[in-house]
User: Fold this.
Amino acid sequence: MKININDQNSYGQINPNLHGQFIEFLGNCIDEGIWVGKDSKIPNIDGMRKRTVDALKKLAPPVVRWPGGCYADTYHWRDGIGPQKDRPISFNENFGTYQRDRHSFGTDEFMEFCELIGAQPWFNINMLSASVQEMKDWMEYCNRSEKTSLSNQRKDNGHAEPYAVKY
Assistant:
């Protein structure tokens, strides 16, 4: 068998977005991996583990997909916005782990995380236990520049400007 490489031929360019990352609430990926909390003794940036942020910044992933794969099927974005003390606690039913989810790392934290590491956010939508309206509302919360109840809620949660989520 023989391989010939002709560096004069070009067949296109690989889209760099294919080399992104994904994070999900499984094991300690989010809690204790990325998110340690603002009051943690572990060095952090607004609750995100500094060493994780620094390492991913060096990797420079073009996109980060969240809230993961199967976990997205039970994720309801409204559980992860607003004051952390007011967020509901639920149990991750995927994979039979029943891990406690405090929803401490939600939409606004994810958006800050992406900004810190220089990545574009990619939202996985809940296609199993949510509605099309819920997903539409999530994008309105993130992207609407006009004043609506959801864009005002984003502003109240600390981010006046739209996030401009593309994916």
Summary: The first helix runs from residue 50 to 59. The chain has a mean pLDDT of 91. The first strand starts at residue 21 and ends at 22.
